[in-house]
Amino acid sequence: MRSPNLRPRLRVLAVSAACTVAATTLAACGSDGPGGSSDSLEVWVYQDGSTTIQEDFVERFNETSDIQVNLTQIPGENYQDRMRTAMGSPNAPDIFFNWGGGSIADFVEEDMLIDLTDTLADDPEFGDAFIPSILDAGAIDGRHYGVPMRGVQPVILFYNQTLFDEAGVEPPASLDDLFSLVDTFVERDITPAVLAGADPWTELMWLEYLLDRQGGAEIFDRIRNGDSAAWGDPAVLAAAQNATDLVEAGAFGNNFRSVSYTTDGASTFFAQGEAAMHLMGSWEFANQLSNQPEFAESDLAWATFPAIEGGTGDPAALVGNPTNYWSVNANVEGDKLDAAVEFLKLHASEDYASALIANGDIPTTADAESLLDEAPTPEYARFQYEMVRNAPSFTLSWDQALPADQSTPMIDNIEKLFSGQLSAEQFVEAMQNL
């Protein structure tokens, strides 16, 4: 997922066994943990380009609070493993960064987190500050255990405006349009859509949208809530078959399994005009602006994923990473809990939304529209914000929504589906057998 800006769900940088951490205010590996110190809160955050915002707001909080926040920035692919090891131990943080859904489901099941539902409801200025679909996307069984703390990260269909103009075509409004575009660009010896098959989470994005458009968000909601029979829904088979048909039609070229996203291979291929489209998280825009600025400024365009004729899914629905969340350890209580809630409330403020926008992120707050002209690229910012605000649902990326014992084999099966090792029917069977 970005160095969170490359892919927040999966690409979390390396944590060494010696517990190397970087921070403005650095807490030691063996911190006092929740309740261990009466005058401080230990806060863990994923280290990336956005942590400068967290540093700033921690400093602001500490200027007026008797209970100080110690911010620990953790690089590493092992972020979630470290979190699972720490929770329930004396080294657990008081507040920590996560992706909601499956990333915290085990903690909720073990009563390790504060249920913030009533806190949000009792303070409408706080609870109503966030876009409802974003707040709800991080919930577990309808209860809120996290508060949004980063920008929105929907999956967007990016395309090369110049290539589309030269071919005399428009971005697809339907799946039939998409298949027609595949034929058009194959004939022009251009890969219709770059796909980084070496990183199979990129294939997941296609399947997520194909299922959402075919059968609606409720099918994956059933799966996420433990109904494994939902993998047998006809819409899952249809989505898997559409994915297979796209591969066989040449939508992704012949060598997509050797293309990587994390080494910038797919983005560079796209920027060089070798591919017409790229389905990727919203961070792709910042990635292109940084690494291929001429392409980003002259050729890069964006659209929503197309509808499916006869499908029951709402074409305004989204998939991706709605945002990242702060959650609070259940062992935090008394004055420290009061201080923790006050710290969370900072993230509902206009000042925080402005800081996110200045950093190139799109806030999750419901009243941020008036601030979007401050964004580095206002047109793109407005497109993203309106898309998220108007979405009837925002499905969390499946590999984050499901626990690891399901998400890991799921990704393996998706990779096999796209590589032709599993047919659509075999994929459905394999998923039902998880």
TrEMBL record:
PANTHER family: ARABINOSE-BINDING PROTEIN-RELATED, BLR3389 PROTEIN. The keyword Signal applies. It comes from the Bacteria. It comes from Streptomyces mimosae. Transmembrane segments: none annotated. It holds the Pfam family SBP_bac_1. This is Extracellular solute-binding protein. Residues 1-27 form the signal peptide. Keywords: Signal. Gene3D superfamilies: Periplasmic binding protein-like II. InterPro entries: Bact_solute-bd_prot1, SBP.
